[in-house]
């Protein structure tokens, strides 16, 4: 029996290579955080491990969806996709952890910069890798234009989620544990946008940045392919 298209050998090799590279990059972040704890006996940036774990959730969900794409039904794809969208902002959110960068005793400033940049990079790459999988699912069902519309909206919504997390301190699970406060704050900003210019400034600016970054990464990924789809 032929293998499902999602398990084709070239795609399997690409996914394995991606997992290896992301694994190495995540390992670097963990090593830097661990080394800092050992060096300073302080837990200053240990919270980044939790942020990286949250960033892995949407990537894990999109990977599972992608590997089972040939057998997915809408009744499964839609709820799992909704959970993916709920956790997706946690990945690019790590970019804002650069706010924590400041000179501290006992550790060179450049080391902390490299540590936070490593985590921020991993969050961004996990977001883009995950979104690539989800966009492919949409393209498979609705076409190229719908796929890019989905990716753009997802990144804009993630920017709004970044604002909710960084400035209002909401988490993904607040939709269950604190839904009324979350709904009220979101609705207030939608109904009275002029009163919350910071909200929409963060959402639009970060959204444009994330969309342009995603488009750049996707185009760079295609540069090594010839017209027949073979990778150089």
TrEMBL record:
Keywords: Membrane, Transmembrane, Transmembrane helix. The keyword Nucleotide-binding does not apply. InterPro entries: DUF1361. The chain crosses the membrane at residues 16-39, 45-69, 76-95, 107-130, 142-164, 200-220. Pfam families: DUF1361 (PF07099). This is Uncharacterized membrane protein. It comes from Hymenobacter psychrotolerans DSM 18569.
């Amino acid at each position: 029996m032929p293998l499902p298209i999602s398990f084709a050998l070239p795609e399997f090799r690409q996914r394995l290579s991606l997992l290896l590279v992301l694994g190495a990059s995540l390992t670097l972040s963990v090593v830097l955080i661990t080394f800092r704890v050992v060096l300073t006996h302080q837990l200053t940036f240990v919270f980044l491990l939790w942020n990286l774990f949250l960033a892995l959730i949407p990537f894990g969900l999109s990977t599972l969806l992608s590997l089972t794409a040939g057998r997915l039904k809408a009744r499964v794809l839609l709820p799992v996709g909704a959970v993916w969208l709920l956790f997706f902002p946690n990945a690019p959110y790590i970019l804002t952890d650069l706010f924590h960068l400041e000179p501290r005793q006992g550790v060179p400033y450049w080391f902390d910069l490299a540590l936070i940049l490593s985590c921020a990079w991993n969050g961004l790459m996990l977001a883009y890798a995950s979104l690539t999988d989800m966009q492919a699912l949409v393209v498979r069902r609705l076409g190229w234009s719908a796929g890019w519309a989905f990716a753009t909206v997802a990144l804009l919504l993630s920017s709004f989620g970044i604002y909710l997390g960084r400035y209002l301190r909401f988490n993904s699970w607040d939709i269950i544990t604190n839904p009324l406060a979350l709904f009220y704050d979101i609705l207030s900003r939608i109904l009275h946008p002029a009163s919350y210019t910071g909200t929409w400034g963060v959402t639009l600016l970060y959204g444009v940045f994330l969309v342009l970054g995603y488009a750049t990464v996707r185009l760079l990924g295609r540069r090594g392919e010839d017209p027949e789809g073979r990778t150089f």
